[in-house]
Amino acid sequence: MSELSSPVRIAMIGVGGIGNMHLTNLLRMPSAEVVGLADIDANKIAVTLRRAAAYQNPSIEPPAIPAFNDVDRMLNAVSPDAVVLALPPFAHGEVEFQCVEAGLPMLVQKPVGLDMETVRAIEQKILDRGLITAVGYQARYSHAADIARSMLADRPIGMAVGAYLGGLPQTSWWRVQARSGGQVVEQATHVVDLQRYLVGEIETVQAVAATRLMTDVENLDVADVSVASLVFDTGAIGTLLNSSGLNGVPQEPWDHGLTLVARDLSFRVWTDGGRIATAGETRELVNPEDCKYLLDEAFVKAVATGDSSHIRSTYSDAVLTLRATLAINESARTGELVRVADLG
């Protein structure tokens, strides 16, 4: 497509919790038209559509959008311009290959997979076809991240302190390592991605992890506490702290996000805003726009115009974030220092 006069026809694959967020955004967006919804659970499609439509006006009926339980049937029936893949980690792979084969631009929810061999194969197919892609790392679209990149462009960062301290998601697959990848891969990936975006590539990691707090939870085999030390190609060092043991605990500002330490400067960045502290001033930052909406909007605009310069995380970029989080898992498993590039 080359102009914005006609809405971009979007098909969605996966309509769970994160799918509801994307669908809500797309239904609000004049430049997008949702033309198909696919999920293996047909009942979930109707529930999500009602919820997403009610965000704008609880009194109106949701739009009539065709629903499918088979991706191929949907793609053939509705002929979309692009797709949004809101899938759990273990479900990535075959669907991406289907969409690439159909020549469709894709917005893929993070993480893009659970193993490097599969995601590298998908990446190569995308590059071969020259497809527009985006990945759901919304923190890159925050106002605080914009200011940090500008303010720290010529200022050495000494340390990048990342944290993701929260509770245990209730989704059953999340607590199974082979299906979610664990908290570092599935949730704290947002922090690792922000570290890469603002500091540089992560060269080595050393991590420890344990299951200490949620031992009474059935069918749980993921670590609920983890600490990793990171070395960046810029020479900066960093940490990543995460836990899923804070159920129902009120969040503190430092529980989630990234704090960058430079000479006489501390800069916190996250999706809700940030904080700049210097010797003479403390400045609170509030993101004026929902960065999740900005992410979806950037993808739709790229498909409409063919200009992907506003997309801040492509599939290829997100593969590198996955690699860094898998390296943290590998270091925690082996107890050894891991070179991130060695994972592929």
Could you say what the CATH architecture of the largest domain is? 2-Layer Sandwich
- Strand % is 15-25%
- What is the succession of H and E elements? EHEHEHEHEHEHEHHHEEEEEEEHHE
Q: Give the distance, in angstroms, between the N- and C-terminal Cα atoms.
A: 34 Å
Helix content: 25-40%
Trace the largest sheet across and list its strands. Answer: 14-13-12-11-7-10-9-8-15
What is the count of structural domains?
Answer: 2
CATH superfamily annotation of the largest domain? Dihydrodipicolinate Reductase, domain 2
Structure class:
alpha/beta
Mean pLDDT: 95
Unreliable sequence segments: none
Radius of gyration: 20 Å
CATH topology of the largest domain: Dihydrodipicolinate Reductase, domain 2
Number of strands: 15
CATH class of the largest domain equals Alpha Beta
- How many helical elements? 11
The biggest beta sheet reads: 9 strands, mixed
Shape by Cα distribution: globular
Describe this structure in words.
- It is a single chain.
- Helices cover 34% and strands 24% of the residues.
- The radius of gyration is 20 Å and the shape is globular.
- A nine-stranded mixed sheet has the order 14-13-12-11-7-10-9-8-15. The protein has a six-stranded parallel sheet with strand order 3-2-1-4-5-6, with helices on both faces.
- The two termini are 34 Å apart.
- It folds into two domains: 8-136 and 292-312, Rossmann fold (3-Layer(aba) Sandwich); 139-290 and 323-343, Dihydrodipicolinate Reductase, domain 2 (2-Layer Sandwich).
- It has helices spanning 17-28, 42-54, 71-78, 94-101, 116-129, 143-151, 177-180, 182-186, 189-198, 291-305, 315-334, and strands at residues 8-13, 32-38, 67-68, 82-85, 106-108, 133-135, 157-165, 202-210, 225-232, 237-243, 256-262, 265-270, 273-278, 282-286, 338-339.
- Strand 2 (32-38), helix 2 (42-54) and strand 3 form a beta-alpha-beta unit.
- The longest helix is centred in the last third of the chain and has 20 residues, at 315-334.
- The chain has eleven helices and 15 strands.
- The protein has 344 residues and is an alpha/beta fold.
